[in-house]
Specification:
The chain is α/β, with parallel strands linked by helices. It is built from ten helices and twelve strands.
């Protein structure tokens, strides 16, 4: 890419897409293409084809997706598999049709098997059964990987796939019915702290599972790094390589938010996979590593939430 390349960011208003836009602007890229969902429905093939034909981007960051936590995945499995399959297929196919030089597809660490050896290496893909609580979403993301690889083999395209670990940061979703664990913790502790009665915070599961978290600004930096320097059919893990128990994560969020009430763990609720940590040695070998520490990132995210919660 050069600074005047036409770059389309699909999903530019979401957590990942907005971070990619910020990163590209910070690095001086001046010809960015975005389009709001009300003006372009990525689930409509003809509309996507018309948009790419008219705008002719040279590079595409495919960050558009339907995402959510355990509750959303359990209650809306059809939407998670259908929406993601059709959005990514439309964008990938249209990118091929209209000569996009390079596309970066955002996958997810949930593509790896439920009982995957830890830390999870890229070659562990499709070596075991998926975690049932988010299987439809994972199947869609695996299909996206295979779509990119298949187009590369048949048509000679340059479509790459990256697998980030759990993400958080500004523009995250803090809705308790559909959010992921970290923004949900921030929301729960914040709401309880601002309640004069200091009601107890009830958290799902036992707190024993381990998760790894990556600030979305680090992900955006990684995506631009890979778009500029990496090509090939191999998938690339993006993460910090460091995990934390959900219980310790909750304590960190509690401290950042300033909540001093009681915490109750509801063990009748699912924990999900016991441990999810990425092997990021391949990416570190390319010379990249995360910069935002977890507590620092939580403080930044909480400040963003406080400033934007009523907007």
């Amino acid at each position: 890419m050069n600074k005047t390349s036409k770059i389309y960011i699909a999903g530019h208003s979401g957590l990942v897409g907005s971070a990619i836009v910020r990163r590209l602007q910070f690095e001086g890229y001046s010809n960015l293409i975005t389009c709001a969902s009300k003006d372009l429905d990525l689930q409509r093939q003809a509309d996507v084809e018309a948009f790419l034909k008219e705008n002719k981007p040279e590079y595409v960051f495919l960050a558009a997706a339907k995402v959510g936590g355990i509750i959303a995945n359990n209650t809306l499995p059809a939407e998670f598999i259908y929406n993601n399959l059709i959005i990514q297929t439309n964008v990938i196919h249209s990118s091929y049709l209209f000569g996009v030089k390079k596309l970066l597809f955002l996958g997810s660490s949930c593509i790896y098997p439920r009982n995957c050896p830890q830390p999870m290496k890229e070659e562990y893909l499709l070596t075991g059964e998926l975690e049932p609580t988010n299987e439809p979403y994972a199947v869609a993301k695996i299909a996206g990987i295979r779509t990119c690889q298949s187009y590369n083999r048949q048509y000679g395209t340059n479509f790459i796939s990256v697998m980030p670990i759990n993400l958080y940061g500004p523009n995250d979703n803090f809705d308790l019915d559909s959010s992921h664990v970290l923004p949900a913790l921030i929301r729960k502790f914040h709401d309880a702290r601002t309640d004069s009665g200091k009601r107890p915070v009830v958290l799902w599961g036992t707190g024993s599972p381990y998760r790894e978290f990556l600030h979305v600004d680090d992900l955006a930096d990684a995506c631009v790094f890979l778009m500029e320097r990496f090509s090939g059919n191999d998938i690339v893990n993006i993460g910090t390589g460091v995990d934390i128990s959900i219980k310790d994560l909750a304590e960190t969020v509690r401290k950042v938010v300033g909540y001093d009430g009681d915490v109750v763990w509801d063990a009748t609720k699912p924990d999900g996979t016991h441990k999810k940590q990425l092997d990021v040695s391949k990416f570190k070998g390319m010379g990249w590593s995360a910069k935002v520490g977890l507590e620092e990132g939580i403080k930044m995210t909480y400040e963003w939430h406080r400033k934007n919660e009523n907007k």
